[in-house]
Amino acid sequence: MIPLLEVSALTKRYGGLLACNDFALSVMPGSLHALIGPNGAGKSTAIGLLSGEIVPDLGHIRLDGADITKIAMPARVKQGLTRSFQITSVLPHFTALENVAIVAQIRAGHSFRCWGDARRDRDLTDPARAMLDRVGLGARAMTRAEDLAHGEQRQLELAMALMTGARMLLLDEPMAGLGQTESQDMTALLAALKGSVTILLVEHDMDAVEALADRVSVMVAGHVIAEGSFAEMRADPAVRAAYLGEAA
Amino acid sequence: MANLGRKRIMLALLAMLLTGLPYLADRLAMPDLVSLGTQIAIYAIAAIGLDLLIGYTGLSSFGHAGFFGLGGYVVGILAFHAAEGTAFVGLVPGATEAWVAWPAAILVSALAALAIGALSLRTSGVSFIMITLAFAQMLFYLFVSLKTYGGDDGLGFRRRNGLPWINPRDDVAFYYVCLLVLMIVLALCHRLVRSRFGLVLLGIKQNERRMAAIGLDATRYKLAAFTLAGAIAGLAGALQANLLRFVSPDMLHWTTSGDFMVMVVLGGVGSLVGPVFGAAAMVLLQSWLAQWTEHWMIVMGPVLVAVILLTRRGIWGALGGRG
């Protein structure tokens, strides 16, 4: 079995800072792979590189065997690679339903159709409703995104990412800013998704990582220093040193 | 929902007022009202096009007058060559018929917008404002330097473009032509912003990065919107040339771009109907205040500030309309 996402020797330098240094990662199809590391390790840069928002200096990214290193973000989405954002990013003036329906619209192909009321197009709203139900937002379909609670916005963000038809999801801290019960809800939601879509999860919430991850990669200073199960990583002296750092 | 009813009533009142304007002008013995009404309709058309960019796509173009003036000059230059019996660059014969000159104005403005947009849309924010301004100024100086077509002094022509069944000397008939074009543009844009294309534009305005992350190549859609707005401005420019039977570089001046922006903001950004009110307010205030002082902007400025500060969405927002 070949990895769905395979990254080799990925490097990105900002002036004197090596945000990503010979970064390598393989995510097997159907798995939930967590990428953890202390603040400033370069995890968000890695997500930016993988999603196509940032252009790497060196290295290769392969999706299902095909080299996508040079492909722009919108085209990567069409090939099944979608990211979510650490800071909630939705379309604030659209309702939850419109936020998801516009993803269905873009997935359906070009959007140069200038006639007909797109908000009443059931080819778009029906799948969008089903997706909102799936993430538990069905009852909030007609609420404007900016009026949703923070936790609900995170759910909406996930619904949008899923609606692209992604095979490979890059989730950048989906638990960020969530309270304890909301985190547990999000963990349950991701657990339910496991298997149906391959996920690379960047997360600081170790309870969630422990509950969800099949494999864990630990990133320090732009480089993956260790990889294995959550238990192995917890026991790894290098990982402990990186996390506890000066304190140890 | 009460808002919706109020909005319908306001729209119906506006339509009645505009339709009955020539009758009103006659009864009040104020014949100038017809030409003022025509000017309002023409500016409104151009401002609606600009609202597609500012209010629906989030693109603050400061070069709208460039396309407005270009459309005007297409009409003027075609009329000039028709009168001289010559051809533009020795190839394109002159024309005086509206069905030739107006589509030509739309096409030329659209092509110019396509080219300028393709370059300008590589930037965003303040750079985009400045680069669209720069392109419009380039067009301005181009026409200033074209001595064949009057240069600084502009270019006059004798007759309006011919339309079937309509006497070109009849000002009231021309007013209704402009009003009809305004209604058509408004109706088409109303449909457009609710379509799939329109929703994509609204999405780009709200969060372009998010749109890219769900698979949208935003540049193509922004360019399409920019081209469409340019085409609409070109049509308005063609009508403007017909109203005055005169075109001059003033049409392309950056202050004209500023006027269009003011109309959009004054009337209500992102509402399509708002710019009609904005154009009306601008034209009426200008004509009224200009009787007292040539420095009418001294009054216009504070009015604009007051409207922006006191209403959330311009005149149309204050009248109870939204979206």
Oligomer: heterodimer
Relative helix content of chain A: 25-40%
pLDDT < 50 runs, ≥5 residues of chain A: none
The CATH C-level name of chain A is Alpha Beta
Roughly what is the average pLDDT of chain A, rounded to an integer? Answer: 92
| Percent in strands of chain A | 15-25%
What is the number of strand segments of chain B?
4
What topology, given as strand order, has the largest sheet of chain A?
Answer: 6-7-8-3-9-10
Number of domains of chain B: 1
CATH architecture of chain A: 3-Layer(aba) Sandwich
- Widest β-sheet, arrangement of strands of chain B: 1-2
Q: What name does the CATH topology of chain B carry?
A: ABC transporter involved in vitamin B12 uptake, BtuC
Number of helices of chain B: 14
Number of strands of chain A: 10
Domain module tally of chain A: 1
Task: Provide the succession of SSEs of chain B.
Answer: HHHHEEHHEHHHHEHHHH
Q: What string gives the helices and strands of chain A in order?
A: EEEHEEHEHHHEHEHEEHH
CATH evolutionary superfamily of chain A: P-loop containing nucleotide triphosphate hydrolases
**The top level CATH class name of chain B:** Mainly Alpha
Helix/sheet category of chain A: alpha/beta
Second-tier CATH architecture of chain B: Orthogonal Bundle
